[in-house]
TrEMBL record:
One of its GO terms (cellular component) is integrator complex. This is Integrator complex subunit 11. Belongs to the metallo-beta-lactamase superfamily. RNA-metabolizing metallo-beta-lactamase-like family. INTS11 subfamily. It comes from Enhydra lutris kenyoni. It holds the Pfam family Lactamase_B_6. Its cofactor is Zn(2+).
């Protein structure tokens, strides 16, 4: 029996280092090739030994697919292709192809040039890796080889993020990567066909969370920023350069314009500038509102937000600064935090230790920093919450669901919810664990227009969720199947219609009189036999060319029956419908012999 095998090399009951190996109908595909940001040794990369213990990776893998440019989905790609050794095609969307090498190079500089790490890929390796990339358009069916095809769908989340359908013959798998089912200020909501795959592999980052209204979160964020600026404080917003930075920049730009505020807003130079350039370049990937107003005004050309210079951090008066990275663990956001943390007027967001309530932080050189600034945590995550994940599963209608990119306990909760509410089998393998799903091959059958019209004429409206039973003749020609009406089949095949008639002789031994026995038999037949039985008898009697007259007694064994009985048995208007026939009608539908 055909089967689909799935092995997470990363992101199995874990967040980060996304990498899933899928075997479908003899084809092997690797979905994402991410890096775990929490490790500084070989554990940061997926364990590629699961792919094959011997031989070249290229001989085993048919292709690699990258869903989007975040490092936990693409960070290990140069290591995999240039150091482990993979020469095959790598598929991703055009925005991902443009932005991915920028983030890889930026991370390489931090890891190698600043931290001095060994066994890491070089700048040249990043360039060589990107030469293997094949860029795809949304909804474009790409033929990887004669049998394997892939198709990209819009995922929201970040610029260029895509879900991918992998199809071999009648078997298919859909991989979501990271996605967002709610539109935001610069991107639309994820969208995919009702493709009914054998398996849906979905992220489950927020498997147990149902977020409140986005509008409420935005209002709360703007209120807190406005209050801090009004009291003369400085606001530090640590963000990652791509995605949420643009979302919050558009939010503040719109608010500043509406409220006519004068406090300066800055963003880190470098990455964010490049990011905004690519958002302008790939404007068709943004939401409908931005695309509509693009000619009059590009939303990524900010009037109130300027590039940040380090010297600005010491300027007096209120200001708002977007600085990278998002978790305050290094870079410009950490430097600004050190300067502003001691003033209670100021406000900052995120920072794991600070959020846990720690107010004294030990910095480099055992320097202790006292945090007096106001700290707020606000979630503007671009991942689907539990409601969004359930919505996508219902929309795609898969035979099975496999959860990745989430915590084990949260996955277990969502797994039960999917199985109970949607009646779909759900799996949540750990890293290195293989899930095998047997598949039932589906055979496509074309249905003739005449047959469909006949069904519609019965007044039954089609329902996509309910299977419909169609009666017809199945014709196979040149390995193609068609279901047509029997009349059309006879005409196409040049055959004449044949009729088969069946007779049955029943012997009843009853001591009662003939008339009494006949009436009892008739009452039983009338009560239990379906109407089609009587219709069939009537039709075959008419075709036989003989009948019982309405005032004529039946011939044969029932000659004692009164003429009233003959009239009563006439369930058809045709007088030849008499259900109990004598010897004259043996060639019709049936014969009943009653011994005298």
């Amino acid at each position: 029996m055909p089967e689909i095998r799935v092995t997470p090399l990363g992101a199995g009951q874990d967040v980060g280092r996304s990498c899933i190996l899928v075997s479908i109908a003899g084809k092997n595909v690797m979905l994402d090739c991410g890096m775990h940001m929490g490790f500084n040794d070989d554990r940061r990369f997926p364990d590629f030994s699961y792919i094959t213990r011997s031989g070249r990776l290229t001989d085993f893998l048919d292709c690699v697919i990258i869903s989007h440019f975040h490092l936990d989905h693409c960070g290990a790609l140069p290591y995999f292709s240039e150091m482990v050794g993979y020469d095959g095609p790598i598929y991703m969307t055009h925005p991902t192809q443009a932005i991915c090498p920028i983030l890889l190079e930026d991370y390489r500089k931090i890891a190698v040039d600043k931290k001095g790490e060994a066994n890491f890929f070089t700048s040249q390796m990043i360039k060589d890796c990107m030469k293997k990339v094949v860029a795809v358009h949304l909804h474009q069916t790409v033929q990887v080889d004669d049998e394997l095809e892939i198709k990209a769908y819009y995922a929201g989340h970040v610029l260029g993020a895509a879900m991918f359908q992998i199809k071999v013959g009648s078997e298919s798998v859909v991989y979501t990567g990271d996605y967002n089912m709610t539109p935001d200020r610069h991107l639309g909501a994820a969208w995919i066909d009702r493709c009914r795959p054998n398996l849906l592999i979905t992220e489950s980052t927020y498997a147990t969370t149902i977020r409140d209204s986005k509008r409420c979160r935005e209002r709360d964020f703007l209120k807190k920023v406005h209050e801090a600026v009004e009291r003369g404080g400085k606001v530090l917003i640590p963000v990652f350069a791509l995605g949420r930075a643009q979302e919050l920049c558009i939010l503040l730009e719109t608010f500043w314009e509406r409220m006519n505020l004068k406090a300066p807003i800055y963003f880190s130079t470098g990455l964010t500038e490049k990011a905004n350039h690519y958002y302008k370049l790939f404007i068709t990937w943004t939401n409908q509102k931005i695309r509509k107003t693009f000619v009059q005004r590009n939303m990524f050309e900010f009037k109130h937000i300027k590039a940040f210079d380090r010297a600005f951090a010491d300027n007096p008066g209120p200001m708002v600064v977007f600085a990278t990275p998002g978790m305050l663990h290094a870079g410009q956001s950490l430097q600004i935090f050190r300067k502003w943390a001691g003033n209670e007027k100021n406000m900052g967001t995120v920072g794991h230790k600070i959020l846990s309530g720690q107010r004294k932080l030990e910095m480099e050189g055992r320097q202790v920093l006292e945090v007096k600034m106001q700290v707020e945590y606000m979630s503007f995550s671009a991942h689907a919450d539990a409601k969004g994940i359930m919505q996508l599963v219902g929309q795609v209608e898969p035979e099975g669901v496999l959860l990745v990119h989430g915590e084990a306990k949260k996955m277990e909760f969502l797994k039960q919810k999917i199985e109970q509410e949607l009646r779909v089998s759900c799996y949540m393998p750990a890293n290195g664990e293989t899930v095998t799903l047997p598949t039932s091959p589906s055979i496509p059958v074309g249905i003739s227009l005449g047959l469909l019209k006949r069904e519609m004429a019965q007044g039954l409206l089609p329902d996509a969720k309910k299977p419909r039973l169609l009666h017809g003749t199945l014709i196979m020609k040149d390995s193609n199947f068609r279901l047509v009406s029997s009349e059309q089949a006879l005409k196409e095949l040049g055959l004449a219609e044949h009729q088969l008639r069946f007779t049955c002789r029943v012997h009843l031994h009853d001591p009662r009189k003939e008339q009494e026995t006949a009436l009892r038999v008739y009452s039983h037949l009338k009560r239990w036999a379906p109407r089609s039985f009587w219709l069939g008898l009537g039709r075959s009697g008419a075709r036989g060319g003989s009948h019982c007259a309405s005032r004529q007694r039946p011939q044969g064994p029932l000659r004692a029956a009164p003429s009233r009985w003959v009239r009563d048995c006439g369930v058809h208007p045709h007088p030849g419908c008499c259900p109990l026939r004598g010897p004259r009608h043996q060639g019709a539908a049936g014969v009943l012999d009653l011994p005298g």
